Amino acid sequence: MTRARDPYVLPSSDDPVVAASTPVLGGPTGRWARLGRGAGRPVAVLVLLSTLAYLVGYVIDLSCRADGWASPARYEHLCYTDIAPLYALRGFADGLVPYVQAMPDGQHLEYPVLTGMFMWVAAIITVPLTGLAGIDAGTVFFDVNVALLFLAFVATVVATALTVRRRPWDGAMVALAPTMILGATINWDLLPLAFIGFALLAWSRRHPFAAGLLLGLAVAAKFYPVLLLAGFLLLSLRSGRWRAFGTLLGGTALAWLVVNVPFMMTNAEGWSYFYRFSSERGEDFGSIFFALSQAQIAQVPPDSLNMLATGLFILLCIGIAVLVLAAPRRPRLAAVLFLIVVAFVLTNKVYSPQYSLWLIPLAVLARPRWNGFLVWQAGEVVYFVAIWWFLAGYGIEGAQALPGPAYAAAILVRVLATLYLAALVVQDMLVPDDDPVRSDGEREDADDPGGGVYDGAPDRFTLTRS
User: Is residue 174 within 8 Å of residue 364, measured between CB atoms?
Assistant: First the structure.
């Protein structure tokens, strides 16, 4: 009697790193193991792993929480967050409504609308809880946000796990990623990640309008997800799947407009502050431009920075477009989206440590292998430590902290680690038989199991002769 086909890919038999680690956990999965026939059991385990990982991150924050995120301890203990201090600094403590009312300094909230509304709701919940808890309101605000963002974190893990039907265990890479544990509560970046995760899940199930609505909400929470449309555009060009792309685009625009138009009409100046702030921002921490200045190699003139950053990003996108249209086989959706976001974070004017979160789910879907993933994460952890130790003495005369040239070197380490993982994804595009998703034994003609309408679609336009 032949053994029934496994309902999903098992990491212990698919991933060399996991296979080498299985003796610690009792060895690889046996022939008679009862694994269940659906994704319910893996999802339950992933929710548990997510909970444990998130708690570890919260425990790391406890030292800062105890002293109210006093500087420089918040840097030295690697537990910095924007959340707690912004409760007072952005007018939430005064009951101000973001975008509609200006802060005491006359400025407005520098976040997109959906994130601002998330913060406002958390502030409303904070008020009654502060009286009950008897502790600082900023600390309560942090705890409320941590609780709400946990839901977004679990949603991201589950959505990633379900996008490729036979690979639910890949979600563990999202749940256990070191920088996810370290940086999940620095800012509100988990919110757009959840919307992106479910947008890709809806697309994989061939529901482009639902995917568009979810992607539009992601763009309303953090503007970078709009770049993902470029990946869909390139693959639609190669496959000719224009109807699905148009439906996706329409859903994205609709959701974004529904969230943003009320604030545009109420106070256009308050609504547009985020976009003005982003365009006027100079070189900032983590960027390659900041590294050049800290290493005393070059200083990009402020009036040229936007043009240079945008130009470099466009050049990288042109390279990605050529790759997508000239690859011997149409690249998978997740791989293309990953490369586009990599191009953006490498050329952006700032790289905050939580930006690593943007890449994690896409990296897992693009190349679900722990070896390259952990190399990249190691580079991100180096940068995570470096930026906080650098900030511990930034602008303080005689402070004992990481010097500028060492911080620039840490930025270089992070960039090289990111390029390494991107190179592995490009290699899978050029040698599709080595792609871990296409070679996982799902079916003989496995193409793009998470690609929705692109899966199995014939080429309509390429830059090479067939």
Answer: yes
Would you say 91 and 197 are in contact if contact means Cβ atoms under 8 Å apart?
no
C-alpha angle 104/106/111, rounded to 5°?
Answer: 95
- 222-265 pLDDT tens trace: 999 999 999 999 999 999 999 999 999 999 999 999 999 999 99
CA diameter of the chain: 76
Q: What is the separation of C-alpha 363 from the centre of its chain, rounded to a whole number of angstroms?
A: 9
**Residue 394's pLDDT band (cuts 50, 70, 90):** confident
Q: Where are the domains of the chain?
A: 11-20+38-454
Distance CA(447)–CA(428), nearest Å, equals 13
> Quick one: average pLDDT of 160-188?
96
Distance CA 249, CA 236 (A): 12
Distances (CA, A) of 311 to 293, 306, 318, 418: 19, 8, 11, 20
CA 329/CA 190 separation, integer angstroms: 33
> What would the two tokens of residue 210 be?
């639902």
**Which amino acid does the sequence have at 364?**
V
Token pair, residue 422, equals 């991107």
Q: What sign for the dihedral angle of Cα 246, 250, 251, 253?
A: positive
Tokens of 131: 């009286």
The separation between the first and the last C-alpha atoms of the chain, rounded to the nearest angstrom, is 43
> Which two tokens mark 191?
């919110």
Cα distance between residue 17 and residue 35, in whole Å: 21
What average pLDDT does the segment 49-75 reach?
92
Both tokens of 303, joined, read 């009036």
